[in-house]
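RESIDUES AND SHAPES:
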Amino acid sequence: LTGISFETQTVEIIGYSWCDNYNYNLDPETHEVILYFPNLTGNLVLPSNLKEIKSSAFWWCNQLTGDLVIPEGVTSIGSYAFCACENMTGSLTLPSTLTTIDRNGFSSVGCTGSLTLPDSLKNVGDNAFSGCHGFTGDIVIPRSMTSIPNGMFDWCVNLNGTLTIPNTITSIGKEAFSSCAFPGTLNIPSSVQTIG
């Protein structure tokens, strides 16, 4: 398989029925079996009418390359959905409709350049972008969020611009920005009641 493209009728990606060559592992928290396909190669083109990407949909597809464009209309991305897609070294584009990214949704993705979090984003799980070494520039936490989860940008070592935290945030989790390279002064709004 040298690329993945979906028909326009697809509205939800649930699992792996479209591929025979897979491995499996156990989810460390739920102990559910996770299938993954390390031999998928090429670019990933998602359908324009996609609404949801379920947990582990492309977990460990580390031979997928190019940009990762989540189409407009997608509202949620499940846990580990793109975890360890290390060779997707293009840009990551998130839609304005996205409200939820579950834990480890994009952890260790190889995407490069700036990352723009959409204003619609409300719920983000632990370690959503941890280990994404290719992201650079500024990070603006959207006003739609009320908390920054544990390890959200842990080990995003090349984030080197300005970090903007809005006054809607009331808590910042452990290691949320551990090992990031933000320079200068960090202004934490008075709305924040707990850190770590």
The radius of gyration is 16 Å.
